[in-house]
Amino acid sequence: MMGKPKLKIAFYWAASCGGCEIAVLDINEKILDVVQLADIVFWPVAMDTKYKDVEALPDKHIDITFFNGSIRNSEQEHMAKLLRQKSKTLVAFGSCAHEGSVPGLANLSTKQEVFDKVFLDDKSNVNPQATTPKAESQVKEGALKIPEFYDTVKTLAQTVDVDYYLPGCPPPTKLIVAAIDAIASNSLPPKGSVLAPPKPVCDECPRKRDNKKIGKLYRVYEKEPEPEKCLLEQGILCMGIATRSGCGAQCLKVDMPCTGCGGKAPNVPEQGAAMITALASILGYDTEPGKETYTQKEIEEIISQIKDPTGTFYMYSLPASILKRKVIKK
Predict the structure, then answer these.
(1) Residue 38 maps to which CATH number?
(2) Across-strand partners of 7?
(3) In a shared domain, residues 166 and 28
C-alpha cells in the first residue's frame, strides 16, 4: 500500500544576512521530521538547483515555500513572483520578508545616495572613473547584465500575496518547529496569520514593572541594569511593549533590551508609533511628581535623549510602516 506522498517545499534567500538559513538547521534533530515529511525541491544555498528548474515546474507544484529576505533588486522581485506562481503556500520567513528589517533602513536614502556612499565617498575605495553599478554594461564580450538595484526596499507582502508570516531575526527555533508541526498535521491557521503567540514580548519577560515614570534614557553601554527590574523603567529603551512575542524574551534574560525583531504586537497599527506612544506616557521629569505640562524647551530636552529614533523605533519595520521611506524628490 502506497504511503502518503511527501510535501514539496522550497527555501529562498533574498535581501537578508543569511541567518534565517542557519535557523532552519538550528532545529537540530527536528530536521529528520522535515525529511520524513517533505522533499526539498529548491534551496539555492544548500543544493544545486537553477532558476530555470523552478521556471519549468508546473504552477502550484511546490506545496510550501519559505521565503526569507526583503525585496531590494529585480532578481529578488522576479523570484518572489516566480515562487508565488509555483507555490500553493508562501511563508514570509523572518523579519526581512515580514516587515523589511535592517535592509529596509536603506529607505532612509535613495539608490544614488547609497551608491555614492559605497562606491565614491568611502575613503578605502580607489575609483578614479567614478564607476557605479549599472543594470547593463557593455564589455568586450558583449552586454553584461546584473540585477537592477531599486530605490526602495519592500517587504515580501508588498510584492506578492503572502499566506503566512513567521517573524523573528531569525525566527526562534520553537516557532519554526511549531510551524512544521502545523504543516505536518494540516492544522495551519487562517491565511494571513502570523505564526507566533498573540501577545507582546512584555508578557514573556520575567522582569518586574512598577509603572513608574522615567526621567533619563540610557543607551545599552551607558548603564549596567538591575537584573530583575523592567529595563524600560530603568531608562533603557526596550521595544518589548510594542513587539510580538514568541522569542521567550531571550534578549531580556541576558540584560539586553528588545529591539523589535518580532514585528508589531497584536492589535497595534504599527510598531514604531506604538512604541513612541508608550514612551510618551512614561517619559518625564521624575524629580517633579505629578508634573504633566512641559515647556517647549523641556520637551526638546527630553526628546533629544532619544538617539537615532528611526533606527530605534523602526529597526525592523520601516518598509512596512506608515513612513515606508524617505521622500524622493524628483
Answers:
(1) 3.40.50.700
(2) 38
(3) yes
Contact by Cβ (8 Å): 35, 51: no
At residue 194 the predicted structure's pLDDT band, cuts being 50, 70 and 90, is very high
Residue 320 in domain: no
Which residue type is seen at 80? A
149-154 and 71-73 strand pairing:
antiparallel
Do residue 129 and residue 267 come from a single domain?
no
The closest alpha carbon to 201, from 256, 166, 239, 235, belongs to 239
Spatial separation of the C-alpha atoms in residues 325 and 155, rounded to whole Å: 12
Contacts of 278 by beta carbon, 8 Å cutoff, 6+ apart? 241, 242
- Do 141 and 279 share a domain, yes or no? no
Give the mean model confidence (pLDDT) for residues 89-115: 96
Segment 58-85, tens digit of pLDDT: 999 999 999 999 999 999 999 999 999 9
Q: What is the DSSP string of 284-297?
A: S-TTSTT-----HH
Beta strands in 148-190 (DSSP E): 149-154, 164-166
**Cell numbers 516557532: residue:** 175
Whole-Å CA distances, 257 to 175, 229, 267 = 21, 12, 22
* 223, 242 Cβ separation under 8 angstroms: no
pLDDT digits (tens, 9 = 90+) for 118-128: 999 998 989 99
Kindly state whether residue 51 falls inside one of the protein's structural domains: yes
Beta-strand runs (E) in the chain:
7-13, 38-42, 62-68, 71-73, 87-93, 136-139, 142-145, 149-154, 164-166
| Residues 248, 225 share a domain | yes
Residues 174 and 43 in one domain: yes
Do 224 and 280 fall within a single domain?
yes
Residue 164: give the domain boundaries: 7-102+153-184
